């Protein structure tokens, strides 16, 4: 009798538990459906997809006529009789700035690369680029930065005015907690202040800094209220966003109003640079749109090329990208505007400009089709369910923060390594629809812009990168070797380990 009574009491409880499980499962299925959708507003901006025929035709064209600094030399702003310090000059945008300066006739002795490591790009290993001076520096250190800036110059150029292009930064795409903000803050915020201070002491009168289009993005709100998720018009909050400069002209956001530590740090750095604008040091910033690419070491194209496999839930995601060549051109265009001493009061001074490739945004499926159709190395896509990955991202973040909060546990539990440590909730905010606009930068100089148009479309730029990838791998294969690249994200991990060891 007692057993029967207990069973009778358990049945409603078990039924309730089963009902909750079913409701949660249905909710997650609906959220997964929404995360795999493309809003109509976004479809209108990116209505057409690349085809294999288009990709192969473009490949043949670029293979016959590769894109080099010589091929677009006439579109590089004219040479200025100045000296140049390029922080981060070994990297993607900084490297293209160095190459474009040389192409327009700047002598190598008038350029200095200040970076954590020497250039290892193949397009900077020979010719005039190989003669450019390199000064090793850790910009998170004031003394290290000052020493690199204070080095003497050759007599032939020592008298020239000085421009500083500040492109050095670390990219940590997934951390969002203030507990893990220290590294980003040290390099991207305090490092920027060190560069501004060193530039003043070195007598620079123009400083153009690279920031990020991600500054304007807000965290995406995936977890809709259950009574809202069933609406036909429902979608996660800020599931698609426009990357522009409007946020700069509003009060600074709080840390939690940025989707991650990286954009929060870049926003703070941007305001340091823009606030420094004065008649004796004219400043401004370039915000490259979401993903910068243009070398096999980049994360956008080079990342999947190097891995050979793309586990993804973003094939349908529409985003704007920008080639490093286009980003570099924008820096030179802003420098040209800021060169006259009276430009400190010009509308272009002391503000950022967002730039993107001169074409509609593409989807990640376009990128994956490009790699699978054109690359000589193996490549395949593994489709994942976004809601499952989102759920997994929370325990990854909790584990990482637990080891930060309780350092003693590191003796027992190992830190997460490789790509898995980046699978945190913040990553999902940057893996949603982002449409960048270069409207302000594209205005004529007399109308307050910098006259930006862009050299390459995303199609041309990405195909060019695969052409270079194939060429290098074919040469390596013939010699019985292999080609290895290091991405900016893995470089950030290396810098973090090195600076932690030094501390």
Would you kindly provide a written description of the structure presented here, covering whatever features stand out?
The structure is a single chain. This protein has helices at 2-35, 40-45, 52-64, 92-103, 142-150, 182-201, 261-275, 302-307, 324-338, 364-374, 386-405, 425-430, 439-442, 458-478, 488-502, and strands spanning 83-87, 111-115, 133-136, 162-166, 204-210, 240-243, 282-288, 291-293, 309-312, 318-319, 321-323, 352-355, 362-363, 380-383, 433-436. It has a single domain (40-502), classed as NAD(P)-binding Rossmann-like Domain (Rossmann fold, 3-Layer(aba) Sandwich). The chain is an alpha/beta fold. 41% of the residues lie in helices and 13% in strands. β1, α4 and β2 (111-115) form a beta-alpha-beta unit. The protein starts with a helix and ends with a helix. It contains 15 helices and 15 strands. α3 (52-64) packs across α10, α3 packs across α14 (458-478) and α10 (364-374) runs parallel beside α14. InterPro entries: 3Beta_OHSteriod_DH/Estase, Lipid_A_modif_metabolic_enz, NAD(P)-bd_dom_sf.
Strand order, largest beta sheet: 3-2-1-4-5-7-12
**Structural class of the secondary elements?**
alpha/beta
Number of helices: 15
The total count of strands amounts to 15
Number of domains: 1
Query: What is the name of the CATH class?
Result: Alpha Beta
Let me know the CATH homologous superfamily. Answer: NAD(P)-binding Rossmann-like Domain
The description of the largest β-sheet is: 7 strands, parallel
Averaging pLDDT over every residue, what do you get? 92
**Helix content percent band:** 40-55%
The low-confidence runs, each spanning 5 or more residues with pLDDT under 50, are: none
How many angstroms separate the termini? 71 Å
Reported CATH architecture: 3-Layer(aba) Sandwich
InterPro entries: 3Beta_OHSteriod_DH/Estase (IPR002225), Lipid_A_modif_metabolic_enz (IPR050177), NAD(P)-bd_dom_sf (IPR036291)
Keywords: Membrane, Oxidoreductase, Transmembrane, Transmembrane helix
Protein name: 3-beta hydroxysteroid dehydrogenase/isomerase domain-containing protein
Family: Belongs to the 3-beta-HSD family.
